[in-house]
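Following up on my earlier message about zinc ion. Here are the inputs again, as you asked, copied directly from the submission form:
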Amino acid sequence: MALPNWRFVSRTRPPEDERGPAFWFIFQGDKLLVRPAGEAAEVPQVTHPSQIGIVPIRQSYLGYLEDGRSPQIDCYGAEVAAGASVPEGMVADGLRQLYPIIGEQMFGLAGRAVQVVAWDRTHQYCGQCGTPAEDMPGERAKRCPACGLVSYPRLSPAIIIAVVRHTDDGRRLLMARNHRFPPGRFSVIAGYVEPGETLEECAEREVGEEVGIRIKNPRYFGSQPWPFPNSLMVGFTAEYDGGEIRLEESEIAEAGWFAADALPGLPPKMSIARRLIDWFAAGDPVERI
Ligand SMILES: [Zn+2]
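Thanks, got it. Here's what our run produced:
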C-alpha cells in the first residue's frame, strides 16, 4: 500500500485515544512479516497483531503517518519469538528482498522499525551495572534506575564517495569491488567513520586506505539510513588529487576508473551508492562538482 502524499512523524508515546488500524512492522529476527499480494506485499494494518494471530514479545511505538486531511495512521515496531509460527497467508523475509515489493516508503519505515526493535531487545539491561533499564518518557532512550546510565539507539555513520577524475579521454569514476560483493559488481568507496573523525577526514582516509588515491574538494551529496544493521550512509562527491590505484587486498578485490558508458555491474537501485553512480553517469562533473 503506497501513501504518496503522507509524511511520517516520529513519536515515542502512543496516542491515548483509539485511532483505528495501525501499520505493524513485526520482525522475527531481522525478517519482516508481510502478506504477499500479487507482485507486491503488504505490511499488516490492524488494531493489534492479536487480530491476525500474532503475539509480540515486545513492541515499540514509532510515530504516525499523516496527510493533513485523513485520520493519522499509527506505526508500531514489534518482535515475535524466534520459534513462533508465521500466520497462514504471511511470510517472513529480509528487508533487502522486500524492498522492490513493499516500496520505498514502507521500506523506510521498516528500516526504522527494525533498528528500534533491535535496540529495544539488546538494551533491556544497563550496560554498566546490569540493572533492568527503563524507557525514558518522551524520548527514544532508556535509563538505568540504579546508576543513571542513559542509552540511545546506536547509529553507525559511514561515508560513501564518488571520486571523479578528468582524463584526456573524458571523465572517469573510481569504483572498487569488495571481496564480499557478488561476482562482477563494483561500487563507489565506502567506510565507517572513526571516533573523533570528521566526515571529510573519513572520506580522505577511506579512499587512501582502500585504493591508495588522494582526493580533493569533497562535497556533501545526500544521505540514506541503511538498516543493515544500523548505518547512516553520508554521500560525498570529490575530485581526484593524485596517486595510483593500490589495493588494500584484505578488503578490495579489484578497483578501476570507469567511463559513464562502460560501467561494470552496479549496486541495486535502493542504495545511495547507485544514486551517486547515476549522478556521475547523468551529469557533467566539471560543472557539477
Ligand atoms: Zn546501571
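One observation from looking it over: The first helix runs from residue 95 to 122. Hope that helps, and feel free to reply on this thread.
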